[in-house]
Automatic annotation (TrEMBL):
One of its GO terms (molecular function) is transmembrane transporter activity. It comes from Litoreibacter albidus. This is TRAP transporter small permease protein. Residues 40-173 form the Tripartite ATP-independent periplasmic transporters DctQ component domain. The lineage of its organism: Bacteria, Pseudomonadati, Pseudomonadota, Alphaproteobacteria, Rhodobacterales. It is a multi-pass membrane protein.
Length: 209
């Protein structure tokens, strides 16, 4: 299914940096999807073991807790690039030209400030958990089977750092569009009309035949 936004590309430095970050974002999104897929199998294994053998999967809740950062955070930068997050498209589509780019720039800068604070906080949370002098380098562990928690805690600042890079590029793109008065800037999600979305979906269907 086609998305509601498109990202344009050209030969500029900004666009090259945008494209350079995409493979990492796609890898993180893939890991997030694989984590969801794995939990489906774990759930089926646990339910089947409980029903037929009275032996549910030991540590099932621990595995879910360990996978939560993968599921919740690893794909956020990719979704941010594609404009897939919840947005006020009705408000934004009513703005035109520099007013729209200024609104987008302020929004991205506010998000970036929040993410930088979350990176600092989540790294501190990881740092309190990680200790190389402890067994499995961990000061804390899961309740049931004793999984070390620091790897899951580390994923949060890592994922948010990639998102911060994406937000910096988008802020650059929106600032450039605002200053130069560009109509279709690169490296930022541009809202598609309903007709454009329908056309892209039709092209995808034709390509899959």
């Amino acid at each position: 299914m086609a998305g509601t936004a498109a990202v344009l590309e050209d030969s500029s430095l900004l666009s090259r940096l945008d494209r350079a970050l995409v493979p990492l974002e796609r890898l993180f999104a893939l890991l997030s999807g694989l984590a969801v897929f794995s939990l489906m199998f774990l759930a089926a294994y646990s339910v089947g073991g409980r029903k037929f053998f009275n032996m549910p999967l030991s540590g099932y809740v621990d595995y879910i807790e360990a996978a939560m950062p993968l599921i919740a955070f690893m794909g956020v930068s990719y979704v941010q690039r594609e404009g897939g997050h919840i947005r006020m498209d009705i408000v934004i589509s009513a703005l035109k030209g520099r007013a729209m780019w200024l609104f987008e720039l302020i929004s991205v800068l506010l998000i970036l400030a929040l993410i930088l604070a979350l990176i600092w906080g989540s790294w501190s949370h990881f740092d309190r958990s990680f200790d190389m002098s402890k067994p499995l380098w961990s000061r804390d562990s899961s309740i049931d089977i004793g999984l070390p928690i620091w790897p899951s805690k580390l994923l949060v600042p890592v994922a948010f750092s990639v998102l911060a890079l994406r937000l910096v590029l988008q802020a650059w793109g929106y600032a450039r569009a605002f200053i130069l008065g560009l109509e279709n800037p690169v490296a930022v999600p541009l809202i598609l009309t309903v007709a454009e979305q329908a056309r892209l979906e039709a092209e995808q269907l034709e390509g899959s035949d």
